[in-house]
Amino acid sequence: MSLNLEQALQTFIAEAYELLEEMETCLLQLENNPADLDAIGAIFRAAHTIKGSAGLFGLEPVVSFTHVVEDVLDRLRAGDIAISRTLIALLLECGDHIHYLVDVVAVRAQQPDAAATEREAGLRQRLQLYRQTSVSEAVSTTPGVSAVRQERGSSFDLWHISVRFGTEVLRNGMDPLAFLRYLNSIGQIVRITTLADSLPELSQMDAESCYLGFEIDYQSDASKAAIADAFEFVRDDCQLHILPPHSKTEHYIELIKNLPEQATLLGELLVASGALTLKELEDGLQQQVDAALKPATPLGEILIEQRFVEPELVQAALEKQNQIQEHKSKESRFVRVQADKLDELISLVGELVIAGAGANLLAKTSQDETLYEATSTVTALVEQIRDGALRLRMVPIGDTFNRFQRVVRDVSHELEKQIELQISGADTELDKTVVEKISDPLMHLLRNAMDHGIESPAARLAAGKSATGVLKLNAYHDSGSIVIEIADDGAGLNTERILQKARERGLVAATAQPSEQEIYNLIFEPGFSTASAITSLSGRGVGMDVVKRNITALRGTVDLSSAAGLGTKVRIRLPLTLAIIDGFLVGVGDASYVVPLDMVQECIELADDSKAAAEPRHYINLRGEVLPLVFLHQHFNTGGGQRRRQNVVVVKNADQKAGLVVDELQGEFQTVIKPLGKLFSNLRSISGSTILGNGKVALILDVPSLIQQLAQQQVQPRLALQTPALRN
Amino acid sequence: MTIRSSMFNEVPLLHIEGEMTIYTAALLQQQLQLYIAQYSELELNLSQVSDIDSAGLQLLMAAKRQAANQGAVLRLTGHSPAVLEVFDLCNMAAFFGDPLIIPDVSHG
């Protein structure tokens, strides 16, 4: 197929996924608040739009299934059927199935497999229940319909659709035939006449203009709005008249008058289709002529005519307007950009930052004041561009959080627990790549919390808590990183049991007495699970270590706190972005290192006297606080002589402070992170490298891991020497 | 789309291969015009048409009408499944009046 269509299809797929997500969110809302009419409307619109667009692409399986779903939704919206838990569950399953169909039919261009067909048959059967009850209700409550039918005394109960496509339709990428095929999918075209009266001579015609029109007799249970919406995409570009079954004769006559073709031709068509009798046609046309002769208030007549218009039509028109407005305001606020284009931009900005730093350095050494000033301005602008470009990639984490509502609902049903998910900080933004990669670990942690953390309602009541367990998801920004918290109010971790398990598996020496925090961290060890029973959700002992590995791969950390009987809280700390950071450049011997600026608290001079005292102890007194030190010179074994005057960079990570002893403070530096190769994957204390303006390579310090090493080093000598004095 | 032409008993036979859609309509229009202007009899073989849309359909309609106006004969033959589907959808078989060979559809 053509490239254009392929692109349009991609847009359809992306849109369908979004709509399905919205549908799911609304369904869950509806579960909590069954009277939410907005939610019902949104669900209906989602299904409707998916069906309409799928029809344009000829995705038959999607259209036919979604049509059934839409039908039920339509009835729900009209109040014919009531919302219930089972219906919501069914609709959620239907949403999943549509998702699957879009996946298979649109993305992979395959047909659904046997299992899916079976599933669909089951769903259709269950949906049918809701369709049938409403049909019988509708018939019994509207006696007027049958009366009209008898009055007319004809077997005619077909819709009549007159459509003349505008000349631009083909050029706009629409094919009138696609609309006919779509009509056939939600009903049946009983009779069709193709009109080519406006078709010019072969030599005169423009092959790319559309000259076609159709008169269609159509059988369908669909509402007028649904039929009209079939032509949604060409609404502005075609003449469309839809007459419901049993329309008044005047309406047909009116139609004939409004169409460009000769009245007799159309009249014959309508007579042929049984909509009008010959006599009615003649009378009607005569009336029109009479009316034309008298100049009496044609406008008023038209207005009166309008009152005859089916209420559905008015509703359809209003809805249409609303939709267009909604759509327009959305369109003006968002531009869809492909992710790789954005990535390209970011990497270019990265190069720009490096090149800018080079120019800046040259300007500095040239001692040319004006040149230096100019490059400084450029640098400031580059910084803004960098921030702006990175912000483009930032997305709120709320979408990911909301997806978990469904997971919590399903899992709590499965486990027969009552669990409520509370979300806060949904607006917190972070890098799109991080969002994508954090979703799986989060899911795992949530499942773990639901399975192991929150107790059964009976156990909760026995413990004096409310039967409904609360699961909290929270996100917030904290010194250059984002923190995501998953907290439950369950039983908390059983340290005894963890320690016992760990000893059994040889993870901890039998005599060691690890601290509480260390015991908690054991559950992130590979192959560790305390659950005595393995469920389908968790307890297989795979998971927590994978969670930790995934988070570490994002340069993040995870820690856990717990209180017996009150719950557990897992805190994930992630860097905001993966590409560029503000760094603080320090010199140690011949080498340069970058410390992430967000972590730098202050810089102090290490005076000679305090230095002499600090060196053997590895800590200094910082305004009454003990500040552990890392002598980077020794730590990295850097070459080059040690300067006499040294400085301490105070860094902070997750409430822990440390001092890095360096030779030289070189100032702020925009750092484009270049990941280290696989070869260095086991290297601790270093998280990446960057290129300086002068072309040299500087290593980026992994502050969290440095602080962690420091903590371990301090514990060991303490235990070895058994000096209780240090504790005070 | 490619158009292969040959002469058979002094009647030109045009084989249309590929898609008769908006993308190829202009080219096809030009060719049809040329042939209809020159010959009083013309055969269009549609057996290799893979895809036909409204643009292709209305072009065939215009060509047929043009031929009739000039007293020429334009015959459509060997309708491919794609063409048959569209003729059926739009109920156009009677307009063209050419014999159609309905493919053997087994109802089982």
Report the uncertain regions of chain B. none
User: In percent, how much strand structure appears in the residues of chain B?
Assistant: 25-35%
The chain pair forming the largest interface, with residue counts per chain, is: A-B, 29 and 27 residues
The number of helical elements of chain A comes to: 24
DSSP summary, beta strand count of chain A: 21
Poorly predicted runs of chain A are 134-156, 293-311, 532-542, 718-728
The first-level CATH class of the largest domain in chain A is given as: Alpha Beta
Overall spatial form of chain B: globular
Which strand-content bin applies to the residues of chain A? 15-25%
Report on this model:
- The complex is a heterodimer of chains A (728) and B (108).
- Chain A has 24 helices and 21 strands.
- Chain A is an alpha+beta fold.
- In chain A, 32% of the residues are buried.
- Chain B has a single domain, classed as STAS domain (Transcription Regulator spoIIAA, 2-Layer Sandwich).
- Chain B contains 4 helices and 4 strands; from the N terminus they run ββαβαβαα.
- In chain B, helix 1 runs parallel beside helix 2.
- Chain B is globular.
- The termini of chain B are far apart.
- The mean pLDDT of chain B is 85.
- At the A-B interface, helix 7 and strand 2 of A face helix 1, helix 2 and helix 3 of B.
- Chain A: One of its GO terms (cellular component) is cytoplasm.
- Chain A: It catalyses: ATP + protein L-histidine = ADP + protein N-phospho-L-histidine.
- Chain A: This is Chemotaxis protein CheA.
Brief sketch in words of this structure:
Chain A is α+β, with helices and mostly antiparallel strands and about 725 residues long. Chain A is about 50% helix and about 20% strand.
